[in-house]
Structures are given as C-alpha cells and as structure tokens.
Amino acid sequence: MSIKNAPAYRQSNKKYRLAPLDSKHLTGLARIFFCLAIISMVVFNLAPFLWQFFSSLKNSKELYLVPVTYIPAKVSLTAYEKVISNPLFLRYFLNSVIVSIFTTFVTLSLASFAGYALSRLKLKFKTALQFLLLLACLFPQIIFLVPLYELMARFSLISKPLALVLPYVTFSLPLAIWMMTRFFLTIPKEIEEQAMVDGFKRLAILRKIILPLSWPALATTAILIFIGPFAWNEFLFSLSFMIKDTSKTVPVGIALLSGTSMYEIPWSQICAACVLTTLPLVLFVIIFERKIIEGLTRGAVKG
Amino acid sequence: MSKNLSEQRFGLFLILPSFFILALIALYPILRNLVLSFMEQGRFVGFSNFSALFQDERFRSVLINTAIFCLISVPLELILGLTFALVLHQKFFGRGFARAVSFLPWALPTAVMAVAWKWIFNDTYGVFNDILLRLHLIKEPLAWLGRPNLAFFCIVLAEVWKCTPFVTVIILAGLQTIPLELYEAIRVDGANSWQRFRLITLPLLKPAILVALIFRSIQAFGVFDSIWVLTGGGPGGSTEPISLYIYDTVFRYLKFNYAASMVCFSFIFFLLFILIIYLTFSRRQIEY
C-alpha cells in the first residue's frame, strides 16, 4: 500500500516544508464556502451514528411518532436497560470481545516478528511472503468463503472462536506487517550493532532492546487491527461459520435482529444495541485520531 | 559465513508463523476453489459447472448489478474522498476532530451501520423521508427499500458513506508528499488556484488515486454486508450482487462446487478489471 513513487525532488537533500496550506489566506466568499464544506463533511459522516444515538434515547412512543422528532423530548434509558438485561446480547458482546482481543494479540505478535525480519534481515523468502500478503489484502472475502467453510468444517471448528480468529488474523496481517516493517526501518541499525558487539544474542536484542522501543508503534497497530475490517467489525465469516446462537458476534446478532420481519422489529432496542456496539469505536477514533491518521499516512512520506 | 547462516535461520523462524497462516487461509482457498469448480460430488466433471454458469439468468443479472454498483459507487467515493482530503489537508480550527469524524465510518461495523441506515430509510418512521418532506422535495413518504431504483440508491449511499474514508486517508497520505515549494513556484508564475490544482496536485496524486481506485473497485466488487442487511438483494433481486448469490448458493442451495465455479469466474473478472484500471491509469508514469 505504500506509495513508492519518489519524484526527483525527493532525492535532493534540500529540506522542503510538508506543512499543509493555511486556510487563513482565504477571504470573503471562499472562506464561507470552505467553512460550509467542513460542516457538511462532519455532518455527513456523523449523521447515521447521531441518528441512532438520538433514536435510542427516545421512549417507544416517541420513536414511532409521525412526523419524526429530532431531539428526544424526554430522555429514556429503557431501551438500554432491555438490551443490557438480554443475556443473548451480552453473549454476542462477550464473543466479539474474545474474538477481537485474540485476533489483535495474535496478529500483533506475528506482525512484529515478520516486520522485524522484513526490515532487518536478508531473507530468501521475502518475495514469497510479500506475494501472500498481497493475495490476502487484495481480494474480497467472498473469494475465500467456500474453501474456508470446508476447512473449518473438516477440523470441526464451526461455531468455535478459532474459526474466526484464524481468518481474521490472516486478513489483518497485511496492514499490520506493513505498519511494523515501516516502524522498524526508523530504528537506527547502530543500536543493534552495538548490542551485537556487547555479546547479545539476536533474540535477546529483539526482546530487550527493540521491544521496549516499539510500544508506541505496537499500540497504533493494535488500534488499527481492532477497528479494522477484520476484528470487531467483520460480518461475512461470522455469519457463515458461527452457526450456534450462543457463538455469534455482535454485528451478526444485530443484523439478524433487524431482519426478523415476522414480528414487529424492536427498533428501540436495535438502536440502543447499535450505539453500545459502536460507541467504544467512536470514542477510540476521536481520542486516538492523531495516532491513527498519522500512522496510516506517514508511510507515504517515508516511502 | 556462520553469521549469515544464523541470520537466515533466525529470519525464517520469525516469518514462518505468518507464512504458514497466510498459505493456509489465503493461498490454499484460492487454489482449492479452482479444484472444486471442476468437480461435482467428489468426481471430476470438466467444465460442466461453467457451462451451467453461462446459462444462469440469475448469474447474469447479479454480474450486471455488481458492475453497475461499482461503476456508480467507486467514482463517487473517489470524488468525495478527494474533496474531503483536500479540505482536511488545510489548517483550520478543529481539524483533528474533523479528521477523526471523516475517518469514523471506516472504523464502524458495516453490518451494524447498515442496520442504522435501514432505520433512516424506514418508509414510515424514517428520518430520510422526513427531511425530504420538509424540504418539499417529495410529496409523500417513499418506500425507499421497497422499489428497485430507490433501493439501489440506498445501497450506494450506504456504501459511499462507509468507504469514502478509505479513499480520503490514502489521498491525504498522497497530499502530504507534495512539497509546498512547488505551489510557491507556480504561484510566482501567476497560476490561479484551479491551475495549481490541475498542474501540481492532481498529477502528483495519481499514484495515490490509483491505489485507492484498485482497492475500492475490488472491494466494491465483493460487497456483501450492507446489502445483505439493507435489502437482502431485493426487491425482486434488483440489488443482488454476486457475493450474495454465492452466499445463497453455498448456504441455501448447498451447491459448493457451483459456488466455487462462480468464484473462479469472478476471480478472472477481477484480474482483468485490475489490469484494465492499471493500464489506463499508469501510462506516462514515473516508477510506481
């Protein structure tokens, strides 16, 4: 994913500023237009979440009011109480937590090993590994569905968390390895060379010198794995491999709840469940915005 | 010499776990698909699955649906993503928050947000109808998910909302590689802002746009979650993409081999697609 296009000016040693353009030079109409653009962008991206949030706070009478009210007249938490006291939803939530944490942890360990090897060591199988990574990140999930189902069934993993952790780790690896490789490239080689002279073994160097330096990068990568398409958020594999009701994850649980057309759909509870599922991610993204966006965009600058 | 050897071994030891899991979960399924598509009930049957595929009306219709879906949503995402990235690249008060919010849809579960969209598009209680009614754009509430063209609009909107952040981030990364000196130089030459955009920003963003285009096209080709939740492929199969048909073939009709042949066929389609995009956009380009 890194953009390796390196125009000639990058080779020159001349320092160039990367600071973004300042909007202060805009005047009059352009300034108003710019402000409108920002506001509409924020509203567009936030609207569906905010609407769920407002809907979840209405009591069931107000929820089904026509015409629609925007800000709830009276804040009611009954929907949340109902969702939290629903053992099945708690089970879904727990399953999601277990699967996502395992996925994040395993991916992070594999990716830091592989990233270290790719950035530091001369390796025979580098190209082969990069080819596999490309396969895993380029193609849509549906391509893998049939054989993976067959595989999981053969090893009787259907409805077991491992059936999700395995593919999630695999498809999270490309981004994670890319992040870790880029990070290790920024650590000066001299540190390790000195440690070698001092008689450290390679594994000891990795554990005692590189790992302590890597915490910030590991944290960013962990966040990206967790909020990426293959941990908390995945749907297709979870829908297909988790047959037993008690083994389902939150996205599937909520989606199935909204598809029950036979009965009246319990929208107030669905809204509350949506908010409970997405709120942690929303807070995550807003708090760690800098880490996330910089982590994703910095690579292009460094090439 | 011995140091080199130990380095090889150590490196191998480090990448072996990743290598193994990628080979098992990513490479093996792709190859297995190929084998499965030429078999039926454990026997080799040649091309019979594929010839059935060509006579399958539903397969033709899902291919067309998918193609239209990609051709509408991906360009929209690119335009919107480019705009967002250009805005977010400026300095302004509250930029951190604006960036977080513009990244947010990508971090939320697609299926859950599709449920949110379903509530927004609800024909009686939905806020979408309400806004349009208040703006006097429509006279009476519409059944957004109940009519083919409207339903198609809904799935495109949900997808564009969800996936634009991906494009935004990639283009933002591209923007950060463009040095300000170039803008200053061309300003001295008397170029206006449109010329600055056309002569510097756009050409230098080409690699980033290409990456976004390829990734988004392929992922849009495999769209599943949002459509499964929003319309289930309906009404009357009018919004059914290829992945939904494959899913149904596996889990409803239990025809694994037929599904595998569909996957193989679309796989070739994907590859051609990437190749065409790559060739059209990578002309006259310095080392990518």
In words, what does this structure look like?
The complex is a heterodimer of chains A (303) and B (288). With 303 residues, chain A is an all-alpha fold. The longest helix of chain A has 34 residues. The N and C termini of chain A lie close together (10 Å). Chain A is built from 15 helices and no strands. In chain A, helix 9 packs antiparallel against helix 10. Chain B is mainly α and 288 residues long. Chain B contains twelve helices and two strands, in the order αββααααααααααα. In chain B, a hairpin with a 2-residue loop joins strand 1 and strand 2. Chain B is globular and about 70 Å long. Classes of the chains: A mainly alpha (303), B mainly alpha (288). At the A-B interface, helix 2, helix 5, helix 6, helix 7 and helix 8 of A face helix 1, helix 3, helix 4, helix 5 and helix 6 of B.
What is the CA-based Rg of chain B, rounded? 24 Å
Structural class of chain B: mainly alpha
What is the number of E strands of chain B?
2
Helical stretch count of chain B? 12
Structural domain count of chain A: 2
What would CATH call the architecture of the largest domain in chain B?
Orthogonal Bundle
Give, in order, the helices and strands of chain A.
HHHHHHHHHHHHHHH
Oligomer: heterodimer
Distance between the termini of chain A: 10 Å
Strand count, sense and barrel status of the largest sheet of chain B are: 2 strands, antiparallel
Order of helices and strands of chain B: HEEHHHHHHHHHHH
| Relevant CATH superfamily of the largest domain in chain B | MetI-like
Produce the secondary structure layout.
The complex is a heterodimer of chains A (303) and B (288).
Chain A: H1 8-11, H2 28-57, H3 60-63, H4 78-84, H5 87-120, H6 126-138, H7 142-154, H8 162-186, H9 189-197, H10 202-213, H11 215-227, H12 236-241, H13 250-258, H14 267-287, H15 289-302
Chain B: H1 2-37, E1 39-40, E2 43-44, H2 48-55, H3 57-89, H4 95-107, H5 110-120, H6 127-134, H7 148-175, H8 180-188, H9 193-221, H10 225-230, H11 242-251, H12 256-281
Antiparallel strand pairs in B: 1-2
